């Protein structure tokens, strides 16, 4: 008997059971059981994976990609013939599109897409309306930010983070570079790492970055932060850093000019709300990833750092007003 497999799930043949047939006769009806494996999604950011893979696809396959990216919720309910018709391609082209994404076939791809969309149902990118109340846009902003953080968490490569942490923990000096909103992330990072006894600074001026780049050496690290990965001044400064021999770590979208210059590239890929002028989610994601790096460096330093942090905390008490009030309860 032949069995079909769906995304590595498999059919198991159970012993035949007897069942009543017409006119009281008995017949043997084979029963089949499905065993589903509880495993993580093959592509937790499938839509991003499609967008990044699209340039390497044939033109006909790109038509399928365009339709799926534009109408993902409709695609999961389509037969292969329906998707081919909507994308104006042949059915074999749809199969080639799926295999270009490393899926066994259309059903395998469709199941994964459905799982991804289901996991992101509560965190879809928000769109603000003029009629939104404070309660409504408060909810939209929080839900979108939480969802984006989950997507970033699931897409981060542990090996890449490990490399970045090792480089920063062993560095003679660590510099954080960024412009605009990324400058605020750089300043926050410098504050965190300074507490960890890491010689660090934050630079958001292209002239200062150029001067600093000319003083760096192989024992130094520059972490460049960008929401777009395409800032001209930052690209110019990082090219100088590469000439100095220092290690370049980037915190920016993948497949961008800045990421291409990195020795260690940490990809932060988010679909921002086009109606907003500020890239809120990217900034928050950058801050959280910086926390991950800081904790990693702190763990490398061990117990001696804990004593140092306690000393700092005691020293800062004199700068605060001793006015502890009970928390009000509703």
From TrEMBL:
Gene3D superfamilies: Glucose-6-phosphate isomerase like protein, domain 1 (3.40.50.10490), Winged helix-like DNA-binding domain superfamily/Winged helix DNA-binding domain (1.10.10.10). Coiled coil: none annotated. It comes from the Bacteria. Residues 164-303 form the SIS domain. It holds the Pfam family SIS. One of its GO terms (biological process) is carbohydrate derivative metabolic process. InterPro entries: Homeodomain-like_sf (IPR009057), HTH_RpiR (IPR000281), RpiR-like (IPR047640), RpiR-like_SIS (IPR035472), SIS_dom (IPR001347), SIS_dom_sf (IPR046348), WH-like_DNA-bd_sf (IPR036388). The keyword Transcription applies. This is Transcriptional regulator. It comes from Proteobacteria bacterium 228.
